[in-house]
């Protein structure tokens, strides 16, 4: 998959439809009552990101977001604003070459009927249309974590990309949510989510090492101005040092700006360079978040405007 180019007119036409109104609730935008078979990871063998005439040097980008409990607002933000802004900003800033985007709805493999749903890798407005086909189960178990590690497993073992296979280059993978991650994936959980038989439980550390061969992985954790924010921060800082950053729920509308800034830093830009092209107010609001990202050690990495 991944054919086509992203046109502003296509987004504008979709944006004005009743389906994608910012006045609608997440349930109205994501109106599927159950997961589509085409999005269920236990029925999907491979998702492919391939070069083509429109994307001669394709870069796979995976955006996985928490859809448990009250996190429907995050799915709505991605559908009505962030995904379009991210793509247009990537294309304007050349943050990555020829992006092909796959979206993943993350639940809880310990309690949910649909612990992971994924779209195809797409380069055009189909990425938004497919995003809207996902089901917001709204589950989660209140058990101290969610299953962000499902995305790592899927990306590692169920995606094939020309970026890696032809050029030995990595794609980019983001997970987004407000909780910690369960410590591992058991054999039973892997079979339930993917219909895969594996010989033993996979720890998060093992999953991260494995998926990092094909993708640069990051996590954005959402701060809710509660006492648990510091605990979640410490957890992700230990799990993905230099590759986890906070974003306050009040700033969720700037999610796309932060994602693109991280991509630019990942491509070798300094923090300053990643922020300089933005509106100054936006740059100032995401500067703290970006400061948590440390891809390369440098003598000085201060931020100025």
Describe the structure.
The protein is α/β, with parallel strands linked by helices and 305 residues long. 37% of the residues lie in helices and 16% in strands. Strand 9, helix 9 and strand 10 form a beta-alpha-beta unit. Helix 5 crosses helix 8.
- Class per helix and strand makeup: alpha/beta
Tell me how many strands there are: 10
The CATH topology is: Rossmann fold
Low-confidence sequence ranges? 297-305
Supply the number of structural domains: 1
The level 1 CATH classification is: Alpha Beta
Instruction: Give the biggest beta sheet.
Output: 6 strands, mixed
In short:
With 305 residues, the protein is an alpha/beta fold. It has one domain: von Willebrand factor, type A domain (Rossmann fold, 3-Layer(aba) Sandwich). It contains 12 helices and 10 strands.
Key structural traits:
alpha/beta; disordered C terminus; two-stranded parallel ribbon; 10 strands; six-stranded mixed beta sheet; 305 residues; 12 helices; 37% helix; Rossmann fold
SSE blueprint and pairings:
Layout: H1 8-15, H2 26-29, E1 47-49, E2 59-66, H3 72-93, E3 99-106, E4 116-118, H4 126-131, H5 149-157, E5 159-161, H6 162-167, E6 171-177, E7 184-185, H7 187-194, E8 202-203, H8 204-211, E9 215-223, H9 228-239, E10 244-248, H10 255-266, H11 271-276, H12 280-291
Parallel strand pairs: 1-5, 2-3, 2-6, 6-9, 9-10
Antiparallel strand pairs: 3-4, 7-8
Helix pairs in contact: 3-10, 5-8, 10-12
């Amino acid at each position: 998959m991944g054919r086509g180019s992203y046109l502003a007119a296509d987004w504008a036409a979709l944006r004005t439809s009743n389906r994608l109104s910012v006045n609608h609730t997440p349930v109205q935008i994501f109106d599927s009552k159950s997961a589509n078979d085409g999005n269920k990871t236990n029925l999907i063998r491979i998702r492919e990101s391939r070069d083509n005439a429109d994307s001669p040097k394709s870069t796979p980008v995976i955006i996985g977001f928490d859809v448990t409990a009250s996190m429907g607002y995050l799915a709505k933000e991605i559908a009505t604003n962030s995904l379009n802004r991210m793509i247009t900003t990537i294309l304007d800033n050349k943050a990555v070459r020829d992006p092909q985007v796959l979206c993943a709805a993350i639940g809880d493999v310990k309690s949910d009927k649909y612990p992971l749903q994924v779209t195809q890798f797409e380069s055009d407005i189909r990425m938004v249309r497919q995003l809207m086909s996902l089901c917001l189960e709204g589950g989660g178990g209140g058990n101290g974590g969610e299953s962000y590690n499902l995305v790592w497993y899927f990306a590692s073992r169920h995606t094939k990309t020309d970026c890696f296979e032809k050029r030995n280059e990595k794609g980019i993978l983001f997970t987004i949510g407000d909780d910690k991650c369960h410590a591992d994936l058991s054999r039973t959980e892997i079979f339930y989510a993917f219909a895969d038989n594996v010989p033993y439980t996979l720890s998060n550390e093992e999953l991260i090492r494995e998926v990092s061969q094909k993708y640069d992985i990051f996590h954005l954790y959402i701060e809710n101005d509660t006492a648990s924010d510091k605990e979640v921060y410490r957890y992700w800082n230990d799990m993905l040092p230099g590759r986890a950053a906070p974003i306050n729920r009040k700033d969720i509308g700037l999610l796309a700006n932060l994602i693109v800034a991280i991509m630019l830093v990942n491509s070798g830009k300094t923090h300053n360079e990643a922020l300089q092209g933005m509106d100054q107010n936006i740059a100032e609001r995401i500067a703290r978040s970006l400061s948590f990202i440390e891809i390369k050690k440098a003598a000085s990495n201060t931020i100025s405007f």
